[in-house]
Amino acid sequence: MSSAVDVRDVTFSYGEKLALDDVSLTVEEGDFLGLIGPNGSGKTTLLHIMLGLIEPDRGSVELFGNPVDEFDAGERIGYVSQQATSRGGTMPVTVRECVRMGRFAHVGHSRLTDEDRAIAEQALETVGISDLADRRVNQLSGGQRQRAYIARALASEADLLALDEPTVGVDAESRDAFYRLLDSLNASGITIILIEHDIGVVTDRADRIACINTELYHHGDTESFVESDALSEAYGATGTVVHHHH
Ligand code: ADP
Q: Which end of the chain has fewer CB atoms < 10 Å from its terminal CB, N or C?
């Protein structure tokens, strides 16, 4: 079986600013990877490179065994960007319509079938927002909107979910429920890559950790991360670490 994502020797700069320095890591299918590092450490940049949204200056990326620039099965990937939580989202469609869009990749130019609609309803049910189906996406709270985007990814039968700080601005209770949802999606076989600033959440939830600060400081199972010095090394003496347990 091929890996979900394979990053090899990736270096990337924004102009003069080196954002990633010779980073290599492999995300296996079924992994729940927590991607952590201080502010400005290159997490979002690495995620964008993994998904083929930006091209590295050096190095290579494979998605499901294919060079990322040749990868054409976008429906296999669900990406929830940081902006997805912010208010004033531009989607004037209902939640149900948004989630049905997840089926378009499968039907091409033909119309959605009853089965496509049923898959979309099931996705709404899975993430617990069936009752919001007729609301407009831009009228949802941040947490509800995250769920709508995840439901869309499920409807498209994504097997990799990439989430960039999905619970910023989401209240604690909804956040816990959201992470329980991620756990159950991961248990059902979906690969998850999660950027999250709360180290406690990441070490509770993820089975593997990649800790970066331009360079990769650690990549391995969560236990070995907790026992290592990677956290203090990557965050440095001046770094502020959000660290609490539930
Ligand atoms: P993180 O997600 O860990 O906060 P980013 O990947 O967003 O970090 O950013 C890494 C570094 O690259 C930071 O120093 C940031 O200021 C810089 N950076 C990010 N995006 C851009 C951009 N579009 N242009 C110039 N510099 C950028």
A: N
